[in-house]
Structure formats: C-alpha cells, structure tokens
Write a structure and sequence with these properties.
single chain, mainly alpha, hpI Integrase, Chain A, 2 domains, three-stranded antiparallel beta sheet, elongated
Length: 411
C-alpha cells in the first residue's frame, strides 16, 4: 500500500508535482481569510514516513485550532525552539532581515518557511552536529542540491547570529556547532559558466528576433559594463520598504529602483552606485559607453526622446521587467541562440569580467570596474575608476578585434 493511501491526517493533501505527488498540510480556508499563517506547509521530507507525517499534521492542526480560540503568542518571546528564533529574526525591528533587499528577501522567505516546517519544533540547546548532517541530507536531497542545503544553513545561521546579539540562550553554542559541522559537509562548487562575446551577440540577435530590444540592451549592458543583472533591470520593492520612487506598479503595490537613463551623462559615461554597495562601502562605478561597442550598437534602437526613466522596460507594458519574467525570456533567447543550458542571465557580468582578465586587464582594474571592495584609496575616486574602466575596455576590444569578433551585429 502506498504511503499516500495509508496516511490520513487533518489538513493533509497530496499535491501533484513534476517528480510525483507531494504531501502538504493545508490550513482551513476560513482561518486563512481571517489572517492565519502559514497557509500551506510542504512536508516533502516526510513523504516516506507515514507516522511522522501524521504527527506533524496533527501538530500543525493543533496550532491552527489554538489560534482560532484567540490565542496569539508574542512573536518576540523566545521559547527555546528554532521556530521561535526564526520568528524573532523575521519580526524584530533591529533584525538584519529587515534590511534585506528584494533579491535576497525572496529566497530568505522561502527557506525560513521551510526551516520552520522541518525543524521548527527542535530546541536550540538540543541540536547537535549530527542533527545538522541529517538535515543537510534532507535539504540537499542526499547531495543532489548542495546549493539549496547551503542556503538553508546560511539562513539558519543568520537567525542564530541575531540570536547571539539578543543574548538568546543556546545561540552561541549552536553557532559553534554549525561552524564546526560546516567544515565536514560538502559545499556547492562555484559557478564557472561564462559566455563569449560571440555568444552574447547571438543572444542579442535572438532577443531582437523575438521583438525584445530591451532584452538585447540588457545583455549588452551586463556584459560590457559588468553591472549586476539586478541593477541593470532594477528591482521591484514593496511599497513599505526602501526610499521614494516615482516608478510604481499600483496593481501589485510595488515600487522600482534601478538603472536609469539619467545615469548616463552627455559624454556617454555611465555612473552608478550598485545596490550591493549603496548601503555598505558606497563604491560607485564609471564606464564610458563609447568603449562598449555592443551597448553603442544597441542604443541605435533607442531615440533620444525615449531616453527617460528606467533604461530597461518591457515592450508589453512599458514598465521595468520583473526578475522572474526576464529570466524566462532569457531562457527563450538562450535556447534560440544555442547557448549552454547551464548559462544564466546573471552569468553575463562574470562573463565580462572573465573576458577582461583573459585580455590581460589587471586584477586591480577589474576590481575597480566591478565595484568590488577596495584596499586602495584610489578606488574611491571617480577618475581612478574611469581610467581603470578605459584600460579594461580597451583590452577587451583589442582581444575581440584580434579574434575577428568586433562588436557583432545583433540584427
């Protein structure tokens, strides 16, 4: 008899997924309408353990019924369990979680939810390195998804670190255990995917073929200026986060921040403070677009009168792309261009840096251009950065000319 057939529990439903049917606990619809969370809990890790699956569903159901009676636990009161720590990490006004940008907030929310469901009931002072190794096996699906397991540990450690700041019992000891255990666990290999200039030309051509010059310009900007993808296409923030923006999506209650035409001056020099450094080192980047042949070629499709506001906007609605939709469009262009499946849109920045280093650009120049943390005070000055960008760009263009690539015509 299948586990699905023999396991009956309140709120338990088996939902069809690509790899088969997965158990979920589903909260009562009326309670959800009245504000109860979580709405659903993925119990995939208990799919082959019917007794544990039933027990977990019973516990989740009991929590919901207790909430229904009017009981509301103080989210900032620590009870020694991992779930309590994670809740404090999410809700305390001084928590680093409150400063996460949208690109980080999405995965953090995903893993926080999964951690609460899987190990939330475990006490911090009872957690051992053996437990962490067992959890690693579950989170990585026995080594298949090491990056997922590594991220889950990172999110848990972020909460534990904040717990240390709060002097919560058990956090300091667990931090030591996590550090020691991490040394014994396999880690995901660093990404090595990199695109060549010819491959970027092919991707741009595919985007134009699909009627999306915005995508082609984004690819060129990421590759030539080595800006991060989330800076080039920008990020959508919840209305109650961040600063003020006049670019709004009222239907989704979001506001946008990112690269704008106003960041390019009359001399075609792009000056921008990446979102990653805006709240830390404050390092800005400068890049002469006249030395970015792919960008200059793409700009021919953008009349002067259109160069206002966000640089990259979707052809469908005139608003900046949502990251998920942009990634889907990249997948289409990548396939049409015949590029490797493992090549992601966010690899374009690394590809540009790789081309620069392969062109004998110095590591110091590459660091300045990429906006990495500096050890030299000269990296804080615009002139030093722009001169580095010029040397970096010259080396790349020379390499392309020698190999016969040039800028390439994407249409």
């Amino acid at each position: 008899m299948e586990v699905e057939d023999q396991t009956k529990a309140p709120g338990l439903k088996w939902i069809k997924r690509a790899g088969g049917r997965v158990p979920h606990w589903i909260a009562d619809e009326n309670d959800v309408k009245n504000g109860y969370i979580p709405k659903t809990v993925n119990l995939y890790y208990l799919a082959d353990q019917p007794e544990m699956l039933k027990a977990k569903c019973d516990a989740l159901q009991a929590e919901m019924l207790l909430w229904r009676t009017g009981y509301r636990a103080d989210p900032l009161k620590f009870d020694g369990a991992i779930k309590s720590l994670l809740t404090i990490y999410e809700t305390h006004k001084r928590s680093p979680y409150r400063k996460l940008k949208p690109g980080s907030l999405r995965p953090y929310n995903h893993y926080l939810k999964n951690l609460k469901a899987h190990v939330g009931s475990v006490r911090l002072d009872e957690t051992t390195g053996v437990d962490l190794i067992d959890w690693h096996d579950v989170w990585s699906e026995n080594g298949r998804y090491l990056a997922a397991a590594s991220t889950a540990r990172a999110v848990l450690f972020a909460a534990v670190s904040f717990g240390i700041m709060m002097r919560l019992p058990g956090c300091s000891e667990l931090a030591v255990v996590m550090r020691e255990t991490a040394k014994k666990l396999p880690h995901p290999k660093p990404r090595k995917q990199s695109a060549t200039a010819n491959q970027i030309i092919a991707a741009r051509a595919a985007a134009h073929q699909a009627g999306r010059p915005s995508s082609a310009l984004a690819y060129a900007l990421c590759f030539e200026t080595v800006l991060r993808l989330w800076d080039v296409i920008g990020q959508w923030w919840p209305m109650d986060m961040g600063g003020i923006s006049e670019v709004l999506d009222a239907d989704r209650d979001l506001k946008w921040f990112g690269l704008r035409w106003e960041d390019i001056d009359a001399a075609m020099v792009l000056r921008y403070t990446p979102s990653k450094t805006a709240d830390s080192t404050g390092i800005s980047i400068s890049y002469s677009l006249k030395k970015a042949p792919m960008v200059m070629e793409e700009l021919q499709h953008w009349p002067i009168e259109k160069r206002k506001g966000p640089i990259i906007v979707a052809e469908e609605n005139g608003l900046p792309w949502r990251a998920k939709i942009f990634a889907q469009r990249w997948s289409v262009d990548r396939k049409v261009a015949g590029l490797p499946v493992a090549l992601w849109a966010r690899d374009l920045r690394a590809s540009g840096i790789t081309e620069g280093r392969a062109s004998d650009a110095s590591l110091d120049d590459a660091s300045k251009v990429a906006g990495h943390s500096a050890t030299s005070t000269t990296k804080q000055y615009d002139r030093a950065v722009l001169e580095a960008a010029d040397r970096f760009a010259d080396a790349r263009v020379k390499r392309r000319e020698q190999s016969g690539n040039g800028s390439g015509n994407a249409r």
